[in-house]
Design brief:
This protein is of the alpha+beta class. It is about 25% helix and about 15% strand.
Length: about 80
Amino acid sequence: MSMKINRLEIENVKRIKAVKLEPVQNGLTIIGGDNQQGKTSVLDSIAWAIGATPDSIIAPMPCGYIPNTKRAMTSTQGPTR
């Protein structure tokens, strides 16, 4: 199933006071900006609008974060004694 957003209006969500977007009919819409400006809040708002719950949305990870690094490193070294 595909979905197209024709218009998006967000008010008072997380860091966002107000946003209005009207994507072009055929093309790609890029959400960009400096750190801590609300890009993820826009994506979270879209997720909530289509039925996600706040606890089902995965929090963003810091740049360069590699999950389970310690476990991955120790598992390739063999058993510890």
